[in-house]
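For the sake of clarity, the format in which proteins appear in this thesis is described at this point. Each number in the token line that follows is a code from a learned vocabulary of backbone shapes. One such record is shown here in full, so that the layout can be seen directly:
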Amino acid sequence: MKQSKDKLILNDIECAFGGELQELNEIKSFQNISEQNFGFIFENDCVSSLIISTLHGALSKPLLELPKSIGGLEHLKDLRLIDCRELTSIPRSIGNLKNLNMLDCTGCRSLNTLPVELGFLKNLEHLNLTDCFSIKDLPSTLVNLKNLKSLTLRNCQTLTSLPPHLGDLTSLQVLDLENCRSLKKLPESIIDLPNLRILCLKSCNLLEGLPKDIGNLQTLNGLNFNGCSRITSIPESISKLFLITCLDLSYCYSLVELPDSIGTMINLNTITLKGCRELVSLPSSIGNLKNLRRLDLYACKNLEKLPDSIKKLINLVNLDISYCVMLSDFNSNSNLTIIKSQIGSMENPVVDNIYNIKPNPHFPDHELSPYSIKDYQEKIQSDYVNPWDTSDKIDHYLNQGVVLQDARIIAQFSILLKRDLIQTEIYTNLDENQDDMHWMFHYKINRDRRVIELHIHHTDTTYLTLFPKLLCSLDQLEVIRFPNNYIEKIPECVANLKALRAFDVSNFYRPSPIISESVRPFLESLEKYNEFYNF
């Protein structure tokens, strides 16, 4: 009888996407899902596992909604909705799945809300919302999931807040918030999670600070702040986290200092401060970290001095002070490998002759010679203070939601390119993907309507013969990606882009641009920097 009821429900689900579910022997991991591997598993004549996936075009039509009858799968333990990009919501009847242990919605990009009935899933141990780009908040009933062990919110880029009573999740061991780029604050109750082992805050670049008593999380053995670019300080209470062996503060661009209490974190073997360009000093207590083996200070360009106590680190074998341009010479014991970079040796004064660029018929004004391209763009740049008439262009970008101050700049930039830019709706970070090297003239704005990404690329055509100084006024710009260009020199004003984290001016066919010694440490401090094409 049960099997007959469950089969009827499976028929409802098949009607929703116009396909056929297969009976499986096992549910493979997300990475191993193929177009054949979606369906269900029967256990004791009941459906125990159900996976629906649109990967590789597995479904004949988009899954827009799940039937309410899915709540009748009383013995369902594992529900995976993988890459169901058109699915906007989950039916409230999901609250009837009292035996559900795993709910995985990885890649459900249009999923914008979860039902309050989620809180009825008393046996839920794992909730995975990776790449659910449209979810802005979570139901407050989430904190009723007393058996929840892992909460994965990676790449939930529009998530603005977490439930205030998150600390009620007493079984939670893993909280993954990587790339939650709209999250500004953690709830104070997070310090009440008694079993939390891993807290990942990587690339939460709007996060403004950490709870003062974060040290209460004494079960933590994994903590990642990499890319938390607005955090200015670390609470003194971090010293209570005795299980932490690796402290990653890379690209915390606003971090000014470390707490003096860090010297009591006796199990630390690695401290990574790569790209912490506002860091001016290290506490003398760092000399107490007898187990420290690696200290990475790469591109801490304002670091002026290392404390004398660093010579007490008898187990330190790797110290990277590359691009620490303000740092005075440091002498240490012979067991220590000091990594340095000679800035001057990386200068490249040789630049291709711009006049040798071949004319390309794809250029919007194909009658322009390469010389004329350069001449034209230099003219636009020099006239920036008193620009040509850009009112129509400005209106165009204002209508797309860009704030006035940025719309003026983008309008001028589009005149320099001789084409309009397209506002992209792609939520993933385009600078991280190497498979998108097609024609791209995209920009992206954040929730405050400020321009945060620029992507200019054409496989056959040169669009930039100079780096426009006007872009240096986009003070919230995070990503610049201009491959396939003939930029001769990077202006010093690039260092004014305090929010910048990725910069790409790579090209197949010409040497790298001239970069002054004053700018290179800034560029080297970025999360991603590429002046050469990497195969």
About this structure: Residues 1-196 form a domain with the Leucine-rich repeat, LRR (right-handed beta-alpha superhelix) fold (CATH 3.80.10.10). The helical segments are 2-17, 370-382, 391-399, 404-417, 520-524.
